[in-house]
Amino acid sequence: MEEDGRRFDLEPGQTLILWPDRHHRGVEPYQRDLSFYWIHFSLVPTQEAPEKKVAISQMATLERPDRMAELFHRFLGEQEEGHVSPHEGHLLLSLMLLEVHRSHHRPLAPSTSGMLARADNYISENFHRHIGAGDVAQSLRLNPDYLGRIYHHARGHTLTQAIHRRQVREALALLRDTTLNVDEIARSSGFQDPRYFRRIFSRYQGVSPIRYRNFHTRIHINTR
């Protein structure tokens, strides 16, 4: 995206706030698998004390992308059913902005940033193969303990958690967009044991896969 000549190159799990009354445009064609959420909102001046205000970065990498997605699903689901009052909409939007505020911004050396990007790419391309943190380290020819420490320091979560998050994100899409049963979704998401999948899914989403599917029978999402 570009805003008044300033370019923003977004990666999965990142957010961008575009200001009103500025020229916005895309700078490259959409990828075929690109999907994103968006919401319009207005800023209202307040007289709150400075210590009660929080800083929101225009562009940020989310600490918990799954939490932000869940807030969007709730907002869109409630909106579809006509249950979102201005007050409720304000509260849900405030929670979204707090997720952005929580995001970590740790400056990284280029070599470290490249190493972490390769680790993330390996996870994204192989999560369905029942991989573990050791497999990620082996693919980069690095000591597992060393990579684990660097990854946790930079990302704020472990390699194992990164794998689980990617697997759960895949499961969310399959629950929303397919008729596969939970056992089939577990295997397609990289879990050999459906019971373990249910436990991990509930840990990250706060509900079981079946309850999630029942709740999210309708969603609005921008796709190409």
Q: What is shown here, in short?
A:
The protein has 224 residues and is mostly helical.
Structure description:
This protein has 224 residues and is mostly helical. Helix content is 51%, strand content 7%. Helix 1 packs antiparallel against helix 2 (86-102), helix 3 crosses helix 4 (133-140) and helix 6 packs across helix 9. The chain has 2 domains: 2-45 and 55-102, no CATH class; 110-217, Homeodomain-like (Arc Repressor Mutant, subunit A, Orthogonal Bundle), CATH 1.10.10.60. A 3-stranded antiparallel beta sheet has the order 2-1-4, with no helix packed on it. A two-stranded antiparallel sheet has the order 3-6. Strands 5-7 form a two-stranded antiparallel ribbon. The protein is built from 9 helices and 7 strands; from the N terminus they run E-E-E-E-E-E-H-H-H-H-H-H-H-H-H-E. It has helices at residues 65-80, 86-102, 110-126, 133-140, 144-155, 159-177, 182-188, 194-205, 209-215, and strands spanning 2-3, 6-7, 14-16, 24-25, 35-36, 59-61, 222-223. The protein is globular and about 50 Å long.
Secondary-structure map:
Blueprint (H helix, E strand, L loop, with lengths): L1 E2 L2 E2 L6 E3 L7 E2 L9 E2 L22 E3 L3 H16 L5 H17 L7 H17 L6 H8 L3 H12 L3 H19 L4 H7 L5 H12 L3 H7 L6 E2 L1
Antiparallel strand pairs: 1-2, 1-4, 3-6, 5-7
Helix pairs in contact: 1-2, 3-4, 6-7, 6-9
Task: Give, in spatial order, the strands making up the sheet with the most strands.
Answer: 2-1-4
Let me know the largest β-sheet.
3 strands, antiparallel
Tally the helices: what do you get? 9
Compute the CA-based radius of gyration: 19 Å
The fraction of residues assigned to DSSP E strands is: 5-15%
Number of strands: 7
Q: Which residue ranges are poorly predicted, with pLDDT under 50 across at least 5 consecutive positions?
A: 219-224
Architecture per CATH nomenclature, i.e. the level-2 architecture of the largest domain: Orthogonal Bundle
* Relative helix content: 40-55%
CATH class bucket of the largest domain: Mainly Alpha
Rounded mean pLDDT score: 83
The structural domain count equals 2
CATH superfamily of the largest domain: Homeodomain-like
H/E element sequence: EEEEEEHHHHHHHHHE
State the CATH topology of the largest domain. Answer: Arc Repressor Mutant, subunit A
Q: Based on Cα principal axes, name the global outline.
A: globular
Structural class: mainly alpha
Rounded to the nearest angstrom, the distance between the terminal CA atoms is 15 Å
